[in-house]
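ok so I'm stuck.
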Amino acid sequence: MKLQKSWKKILIWAMVGLLTLGLIGCGTPSGSPSGDQSAKGGEKTVSIGYVNWAEAIAVSNLWKVILEEQGYKVEMKSLDAAPLFVGLSGGNLDLFMDSWLPITHQTYWDKYKDKLDDYGVWYTAEAKIGLVVPEYVDINSIEELNAHKDKFSGKITGIDPGAGIMKATETAIDSYELDFQLIQSSEAAMLAALEKAYRSNEWIAITGWSPHWKFAKYDLKYLEDPKNSYGDSEEIHTLANKKFTQTHPEVGDMIKKFKLNDQQIGTLESYINDGMKPEEAAKKWISENRDLVDSWIKS
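replied:
not stuck anymore, here's the structure
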């Protein structure tokens, strides 16, 4: 009897062990999403950082929608340039779709490039920064600003203080010995000031860049920059944290094929400017350009 009881105990414990192993084995089958994420070293989550600029908002939301269609969870974070590059280099952010090089974001690139990957240039036209005025302003060069200081109220309306265009404008103020104050604000506040001045036919100078929908809405021009304070034309790059590239190379492969011309980015921006929410605008644009989007995401 004692021997029979001992064998029963052994059989019971053996069955418990087999059931435990079976449950562990069923936890993440090799073909399941969990198994795939573990193999890649992380979940299918992508964190996109963006500055509050029109083209950055447009393309960041465009890729949010595209990646969500591919089964990724996408987190969006709006930041000024300095903390964005800190987060990107530290791994708290995965992607930045709007890095202007070699001028606007050069300082940050030089500081953090060892921890970043450059996925290449996505804007196929000429990117540019400089001082912008309405076409009705009858000067054409930065050198002429001081002579008309009163008409501009002695102000240049800028954007967020961490932006490279603000640093370039400070350089221009020094180079041309401008008796002007650079006003720190945001893109939205700057555009509101432009709208107000334009409606009243008043003179205004703003920090401007292309691509941007304001050149379609308003009749504007860049002031000539003979001392080249704003540098030559730029390129718009997508940057990624190196660890993200290692864990999700398939995302990098898609974004490296991403290209937009002036008309394409302008259309997307115009939808947002006309009142659509950025994600809704992205979905509309994707539906109208499905073949182009498919060329980016398909191997």
